[in-house]
Amino acid sequence: MGGEGRHAGLRLPEGSWWDWDVVDRNAGQLRLAAGHDLTYHHGLELVFDDPVFVNCPSSFHDPVFRAPSSGELHRLARHFGAEPPVVVAFGADAGGRDPVPCLIAAERLEIVREAVLRHWRDDAAPGQRFAPWVRSPGQR
């Protein structure tokens, strides 16, 4: 996160991050992936460690990140007893007429920029990372 404070609007690295989806979610982590076309790979991940509040669709397009409102921060603090260290707010196209308001609160956020393959490839470079659901033909 960058800018004027810990709750400033999220700043992403340069790139084409139009297409987004949730690639992994469990009790300890939420991982959002982005790219210009998620068919074969993605090039950016937002990794939220210890998420305490998640309100976003499983896939969306063209998010516009903003600083969370004082009302959003107040509701989170009232519900959890304190403001979470990381709060990310954005509106996104989820297929409806209007953007969907989204809010994610977590203990930590890491922005990872690397190509992650979404389908098995025998010719993948050594150490190339695959999406969590990808299995080699021998693992099926």
Structure, described:
There is one protein chain. This protein has one helix at 70-80, and strands spanning 19-26, 29-35, 41-55, 59-66, 86-93, 100-117, 129-130. With 140 residues, it is mainly beta. It has one domain. The protein has a 6-stranded antiparallel beta barrel with strand order 1-2-3-6-5-4. Residues 1-7 have low confidence and may be disordered.
Quick structural overview:
The protein has one helix spanning 70-80, and strands at residues 19-26, 29-35, 41-55, 59-66, 86-93, 100-117, 129-130. The protein is mainly beta. It has one domain.
Key features of this structure:
mainly beta, globular, six-stranded antiparallel beta barrel, 8% helix, 140 residues
- Percent of residues in helices comes to under 10%
Write out the strand line-up for the largest beta sheet, numbering strands in chain order.
Answer: 1-2-3-6-5-4
Count the domains: 1
* Overall morphology: globular
* DSSP strand count: 7
Secondary structure layout plus pairing:
Elements: E1 19-26, E2 29-35, E3 41-55, E4 59-66, H1 70-80, E5 86-93, E6 100-117, E7 129-130
Parallel strand pairs: 6-7
Antiparallel strand pairs: 1-2, 1-4, 2-3, 3-6, 4-5, 5-6
